[in-house]
Amino acid sequence: MLNKIYDWVDERLDITPLWRDIADHEVPEHVNPAHHFSAFVYCFGGLTFFVTVIQILSGMFLTMYYVPDIKNAWESVYYLQNEVAFGQIVRGMHHWGASLVIVMMFLHTLRVFFQGAYKKPRELNWIVGVLIFMVMMGLGFTGYLLPWDMKALFATKVGLQIAEATPVIGTAVKTLLAGHPEIVGAQTLTRFFAIHVFFLPAALLGLMAAHFLMIRKQGISGPL
Amino acid sequence: MSDNKHRVSRRQFLNYTLTGVGGFMAAGMLMPMVRFALDPVLKGEAGGEMVAVAQVKDITTEPKRFDFKVKVKDAWYESEEPRSAWVYKDDKGEIVALSPVCKHLGCTVNWNGDKEHPNQFFCPCHYGRYEKDGTNVPGTPPIHPLDRYELKVKDGTLYLGKAKPRGEA
């Protein structure tokens, strides 16, 4: 059945080369855990991507109930966590996934670093990877405020004070992030929501596309 | 036995197992999220409680408007919403409570609102009219009779529930 649908479309649009180009590439022996078990260290990049996909999916579903507003944010989170079926699970996926992304990304970075896989000609990919790391930290920082509980509020106050400690432009940066020179409140929450849900994910998708294009173009670095 | 016909190649075997296991994992991931999104559909309506609206002794054969408030719970937002009803006793002495919401486009109807058509409910928005028992007058915009409130009388007090289309109440 599925095969027939595929053939029908393929006959007209010739889609096979499209996905073959993406999916069909040889895994070198030194990267294949079937040959050397230690090759499992190569899985962390893929796992980072996998957890990122879960984050995007669970985040999309969470916004069906979440409201970025100082009066409703906490109550909507409480409601979706306690009264909506599987609310605890979906929010749990997003909560634990956030930490897991950082862990996986860190292990991936360690592997690339200790194998020297960042060396010429892959310096650009290392730089893009560092940018992805920064975007992920930004996602973690902005997402932390959204439940609008005491922990979120004071963590954000600390974060904003760190930003404020920047020489010369510190105060401006803080106001830009918080939306108000003194108050961490209504405008901070909407801003953080917009950054968390639109701006940073857009940047992340772009950077990940560049990351993957480069690794396909250059191939995985050779054995040690 | 035709063993050769049913031989599964290594490639096929791996294809089936990987698709199966992968599908199982994907389903395990997606199922909670989908059920989470479907929750409002599956939750079902909360049984609305009846609200005290009027004293039976105040109800006459002439429709009279009674205003009352119902508690509404919209997820985490709880509020009291104003409602009103046209209440009267019919020829048999039974109490009838009609919703004032016009079945055309939802404006509020008035008893005797139009001097040219006495003893009818009148909607000022598009001149919709209803008989005293709520039946829509043919030739005017509404195509259904006014909704009727579920009601009960206890200790001389009238309690109203949900407004339902005629035939269901």
UniProtKB/TrEMBL annotation, chain A:
It is found in: Cell membrane. One of its GO terms (biological process) is respiratory electron transport chain. Pfam families: Cytochrome_B. Its main location: membrane. It is a multi-pass membrane protein. Its cofactor is heme c; heme b. Residues 5-224 form the Cytochrome b/b6 N-terminal region profile domain. One of its GO terms (cellular component) is plasma membrane. InterPro entries: Cyt_b/b6_N, Cytb/b6-like_sf, Cytochrome_b_N_euk/bac, Di-haem_cyt_TM. Keywords: Cell membrane, Electron transport, Heme, Iron, Membrane, Metal-binding, Transmembrane, Transmembrane helix, Transport. The chain crosses the membrane at residues 39-67, 96-114, 126-146, 193-215. GO terms for molecular function: electron transfer activity; metal ion binding; oxidoreductase activity. CDD domains: Cytochrome_b_N. The main subunits of the menaquinol:cytochrome c complex are a Rieske-type iron-sulfur protein (QcrA), a cytochrome b (QcrB) and a cytochrome c (QcrC). Component of the menaquinol:cytochrome c reductase complex. NCBIfam families: cytb_ExtP (NF040969), PRK03735.1 (NF002990). This is Menaquinol:cytochrome c reductase cytochrome b subunit.
TrEMBL record, chain B:
GO terms for cellular component: membrane. It is a single-pass membrane protein. Residues 87-160 form the Rieske domain. CDD domains: Rieske (cd03467). The chain crosses the membrane at residues 12-34. It comes from the Bacteria. It is found in: Membrane. Belongs to the Rieske iron-sulfur protein family. Component of the menaquinol:cytochrome c reductase complex. The Rieske protein is a high potential 2Fe-2S protein. PANTHER family: CYTOCHROME B-C1 COMPLEX SUBUNIT RIESKE, MITOCHONDRIAL. The main subunits of the menaquinol:cytochrome c complex are a Rieske-type iron-sulfur protein (QcrA), a cytochrome b (QcrB) and a cytochrome c (QcrC). This is Menaquinol:cytochrome c reductase iron-sulfur subunit. It comes from [Anoxybacillus] calidus.
